[in-house]
Write the structure tokens for this entry.
Amino acid sequence: MSEDELRRALRPLFEDARPLTAGLGGRPFEAWTQVIDAVAADLDSGGDDLRAAALRAHPRLGEAPRTLEARSTLSWREQGSPRATPDPEAEAIRARLAELNAAYEARFGFPFVEWVAGRPLASIVEVMETRFGDDRSRELSRGCEALIAIARDRLRKLQTANREDTPTCP
């Protein structure tokens, strides 16, 4: 696969996969679980720059629904698309997440990434608020662990649904 084809194939699992493609190019994979394992290993052994770049490629939690939908249908669904149960406090929660995202990025240099897994965004506010006291290295690790958890969950959902948009393994 070319680098562009690889990025497109990885997009459903890892959003903008540009930071991850260099480590995967030319490697043979028989299953998507192997690809995710390889990305996890690359992130574990990679430097802070690679890990931060991978986190920067993921959409912010609490992003405006229209922005999210335009960027990533899967993130839009995971973060509570308009088809989800309406939350009367949604705008206040999104505003608080925007404040927290800005403060988190200023402190750590990359966006906060968490596996939402259907949790309401209000619960993510609480998680974010507790993580400001941690050091950058720990937050890089947590964020990358979340990226891998998100990719595994997305793969499971795509395979379970046997959807046409399940990517072809590189």
About this structure: The chain has one domain: 3-161. The CA atoms of residues 51 and 144 lie 7 Å apart. The radius of gyration is 16 Å.
